[in-house]
Design a protein that fits this description.
334 residues; alpha/beta; six-stranded parallel β-sheet; five-stranded antiparallel β-sheet; globular
């Protein structure tokens, strides 16, 4: 979404139940309901409503939205398969950008006219992530970016790199930050290290670029020549087409003289975990990204490997700001 639009906001509202149970009673509350022992997710649709320009509280800012972007998470919310249920009537989307048009009297972190986006989680500033922080998200239970205006607490506001266009800046909050956190925490990738990306979604595209920014060698697993070409253009040193090479973990070992990759960014999840582990170096780090499709349980995901496996959910405001500084430092000269 970019350019002039009417003063409107889009809201996620429960769709009528195809079984005839209706959308207003307890059975249609967001998050699903139990019927016959089965959990039936509630499906959501978009409803456009007029929006009155909001007034900020003392610690809030009002942002005029210039662009917003869609993530897989937003689709999971609409079909009821995201780990958190969407609040009925919430404005969706976690990612967007705009300029501050008014602010409360206690706001000091930003100024009117600044171009900002928001954090993914309202209250995760820094430090270890806690469950209470995970539960508060824009576009889930706090109004997101699919509107003409959005209200943010100043602690959730993040300035964006000046050289990025609005559509570019609007794509940072989810995929950009999680790729950055995957490569920089808890142990940053080092120059000359080997990074393997699995998948070709937005997280992998960011991860390739951030890995190259850190001086790493990048190997990417993908599924078509067209995607491989795109990955190489973004900085991947080698690509492996899994449709041609199903045992791509062996190809990774061949490319690394049997050592394997130091950092594996697996944006697919359980279906590829065993292969990601097999492609890892001794003491490697395998990072699974956020909400992903389910798969068959793995009784021993490590096999005989000595490495660490973790699953992360985006990143903190501190991660976001560090990423933006790095992006700004690599901006092309004007």
């Amino acid at each position: 979404m970019s350019g002039p639009v009417n003063s409107v906001a889009y809201h996620l509202d429960p769709l009528p139940d195809p079984a005839g149970r209706g959308g207003d009673g307890p059975a249609a509350m967001p998050g699903g309901d139990h019927a016959g022992g089965l959990l039936r997710p509630v499906l959501f649709g978009l409803t456009a409503r007029s929006q009155t320009p909001p007034e900020p509280g003392p610690d809030q800012i009002v942002v005029r939205v210039r662009a917003a972007s869609l993530n897989r998470r937003d689709l999971l919310l609409m079909d009821g398969t995201y780990p958190l249920p969407a609040a009925a009537g919430v404005v969706p989307l976690s990612d967007g950008v705009g300029e501050v048009i008014t602010m409360g009297e206690r706001v000091t972190r930003v100024a009117v006219g600044d171009r900002v986006t928001s954090t993914y989680f309202l209250n995760w500033i820094d430090g270890p992530q806690r469950l209470s922080q995970v539960r508060e998200q824009f576009g889930v239970n706090h109004d997101g970016w699919l509107a003409r205006h959005i209200v943010l607490n100043q602690e959730s506001a993040v300035r964006v790199p000046e050289h990025l266009t609005n559509p570019e800046a609007a794509s940072l909050t989810c995929a950009g930050v999680v790729a950055w956190a995957a490569l920089t925490k808890p142990v940053p990738v080092e120059p000359g290290g080997i990074v393997l990306t699995v998948g070709t979604g937005t997280v992998a595209l960011f991860a390739v670029q951030f890995a190259r920014m850190h001086g790493a060698r990048v190997i990417s697993v993908t599924s078509s020549p067209e995607k491989a070409k795109r990955l190489r253009a973004l900085g991947a040193d080698e690509t492996i087409d899994r449709t041609v090479t199903p045992d791509w973990e062996r190809a990774v070992l061949d490319l690394t003289d049997g050592d394997g990759a130091d950092h594996i960014i697996d944006a697919v999840g359980l279906p590829t975990l065993s292969k990601s582990v097999a492609a890892g170096a001794f003491n490697a780090q395998v990072t699974l990204i956020g909400a992903f499709p389910g798969g068959k349980p793995t009784t021993n995901p490590f096999g005989g490997a000595y490495l660490s496996i973790r699953r992360i959910a985006v990143g903190s405001r501190t991660d976001f700001e560090a990423m933006n500084r790095a992006i700004a430092d690599t901006a092309p000269a004007r």
